[in-house]
Amino acid sequence: MLITRMRSKECRELLVRLGFGRLACASNDRPYIVPIYFCYDRDRLYCFSTVGQKIMWMRQNPLVCVEADDLRAHDDWESVVVLGRYVEIPHGPEETKARDHVRSLLKKRPLWWQSGYTVSQVRRRSEPAAPVYYCILIERMTGLHASPDLSESRKRRAQSLTSKR
């Protein structure tokens, strides 16, 4: 298997294509990681949630990490790691335009609202869920790409043919 570094453009293209990853945050020296849906736009990952542990922790400590990957085979994958900062988009009338922009990006993905909203409704059936729109400002991004090594592929193919005889 050959592992190569991805260029910045390749990392951004992967984030646009996937829109799903894992967000890591920390509070009181304790890590927490959860799956999230996001939309990449201009060096930001835009997200939606309802108030829960990850939002509370990110409000306390805005330094976060997001990992997204596309695994096609054990020797054919791409992975991007984003280091960034949580920024919540406030609910005030002066931020309506910003929230509308985030919502317009997220609406391009099916069921973009479901995970945060559904969990909130299961926990607190009587309360309406308060939506939280936020972004991760990308401060640093790295990516790796694994591809099959041709000599290894030939060896496996030869072994496969030999074992079939």
In short:
This protein has 165 residues and is an alpha+beta fold. It has helices at 8-18, 53-60, 96-106, 114-123, 150-164, and strands spanning 2-5, 20-27, 30-37, 39-40, 44-50, 63-73, 76-89, 131-147.
Q: What is the topological layout?
A:
Blueprint: E1 2-5, H1 8-18, E2 20-27, E3 30-37, E4 39-40, E5 44-50, H2 53-60, E6 63-73, E7 76-89, H3 96-106, H4 114-123, E8 131-147, H5 150-164
Count of helix runs: 5
Strands, count:
8
The portion of residues assigned to helices is 25-40%
Q: What is the string of helix and strand elements?
A: EHEEEEHEEHHEH
Mean pLDDT: 86
Sequence stretches where pLDDT stays below 50 over 5 or more residues: none
CATH superfamily: Electron Transport, Fmn-binding Protein, Chain A
Global geometry: elongated
Q: Number of domains in the coordinates?
A: 1
CATH class: Mainly Beta
Percent of sequence in beta strands? 35-45%
What structural category characterises the helix and strand content? Answer: alpha+beta
Radius of gyration: 20 Å
CATH topology: Pnp Oxidase, Chain A
Q: Give the biggest sheet.
A: 8 strands, antiparallel
Question: What does this molecule look like?
Answer:
- It is a single chain.
- The protein has one domain (2-164): Electron Transport, Fmn-binding Protein, Chain A (Pnp Oxidase, Chain A, Roll).
- The mean pLDDT is 86.
- Strands 1, 2, 3, 4, 5, 6, 7 and 8 form an eight-stranded antiparallel sheet that branches.
- With 165 residues, it is α+β, with helices and mostly antiparallel strands.
- A hairpin with a 2-residue loop joins strand 6 and strand 7 (76-89).
- The chain has helices at 8-18, 53-60, 96-106, 114-123, 150-164, and strands at 2-5, 20-27, 30-37, 39-40, 44-50, 63-73, 76-89, 131-147.
